[in-house]
Write a structure and sequence with these properties.
CATH superfamily of the largest domain: P-loop containing nucleotide triphosphate hydrolases
Number of strands: 18
Structural class: alpha/beta
Helix content: 25-40%
Strand content: 15-25%
Radius of gyration: 28 Å
Largest sheet: 8 strands, mixed
Shape: elongated
Low-confidence stretches: 524-541
Mean pLDDT: 86
Number of domains: 3
CATH architecture of the largest domain: 3-Layer(aba) Sandwich
CATH class of the largest domain: Alpha Beta
Distance between the termini: 75 Å
Length: 541
Amino acid sequence: MGKRGIGARPKPAGGVKARRKPFPWANTKLPMSERFFLFAESLPVSSGKLSGQKFRLRDWQREMLRPVFDRQADGKRVIRTALFSFPRKNGKTQLAAVLALAFLCGPLVEERGQIYSAASDRNQASLVFRELCAIIDRVPWMADRLNIRKQIKTVEDEVTGSFYEALSSDARKAHGLSPSCIIADEVAQWRGRELWDNLVSGMDAREEPLVVAIGTQAEDDQNLMSELVDYAEKVNSGEVNDPTFHGVVYAAPTDADPWNHETWYACNPALGDFKDFQGMKAQADQAQRIPARVGPFKNLQLNMRISAEARFLSPGDWMECGDTVDAVALYGRPCFAGLDLSSTTDLTALVLYFPEDGGAVIPFFWLPKNNIRMLEDAQRVPYRSWESRGLIELTPGRAVDYHFIARKMAQVASDYDLKGIAYDRWRIKALERILSEEGIRLPPLIEWGQGFKDMAPAVDALEAAVLDGKLRHGMDPVLTMHCSNCVVELDAAGNRKLSKKRSREKIDGIVALSMAIGLASRNEIKPRFVFDPNALMVLGG
């Protein structure tokens, strides 16, 4: 009879064979770390230039892993959360697979244990699963004992009833689980932390659970991976006393020379061993010739907290423009505005730019009051804290109240010498109707396309303002977060536009700011007048 489920391999005749000689790692007199090392080094390398050889733990790997398996006097493991962060090609996937197997059928196995590797998407989730299967196929006693079901990415231990499963970003699947071990793969790529929270919250049912976060750094401070890396630094420095947390981070310092070979070796413990030096050098040479590849090189090869995508503005350049802004002192001063209207349940942004006042920036943000908790939980953004500090305003109800926004825009136009408002045409008709109904007169409203034609010069103008020091944004937290999320798209001619689709989380404030600066750089406004029986409205064109 075959093993259970579609995709399972045939079951050997006679069932799982009893082993006459105990495994070396079954010796309970040895420290658990040594038992794990014996288990790991009994397994084969399944790919790369060392394929076919036995897995050999390097000294840096032993040093990194040993504290995870240390026991207290009562015999119980201390560490509950481990963080391993290093650049690409330092053996992350193989290590993750070995850890999973150790909990599934090795020295860390427990009866009916649950082992999960979790990743941001199906493709990433498949990496550890495929590595694990490749090892099993090369180890006869594992192939005999473990039931692989490839279609649903699970492996079951026939002896103990423990099983492994590869999970992707669907956090709903994590409800109701009781993990023994979680391997959180490339956490920097996860969207939000719901999957993490759901998995970790289920570990309380286990006596000695372990979660291992592994991968390269994120590019922004709000990311879950950044939170873990920062926490590791505090624990390692003694600022925080948490004996249950163990973190090891191999990363180049922010002020390190990215082209210096000593920098490479310092943050790549496998460089010159199973990570190829010439391959890394080739990527460095390309990055020095192609500016768009500098960010990916620093993030992926040096594990620096820098965008691996074509980020729009660097954090350093943005911070250089963080001088304070006095909104009251700017009353009556000429300015231009950008308006990015949201869907009815999301963030709306209006940003003012004062070109004659050192590029001062005043942003306004609105969210629906009744949705604030849901949005905060879904997006993992401190909206309620920002509201209490006056950084965003809440409109009544469950949807953004355009009447509220229209009246606020009228007040803004009264306080400042507003020359024009560039807008994304999304939902503008609804706002125009409300302006007409309430008899609100505004400066010219000017349609601003979101394609390369209009956004490319706006993006160039914003970048120039930042690099030339002609911007003062006061380090507004909402606007700064949106800046850190921004990714640009390039067309064949090299023109750029801000990409909401590719950017991480919200960028509405920067979209509005770029339109405001783009409008200011045009130095020409051609209003169109629309007659209304109740009011004369200048809508722009």
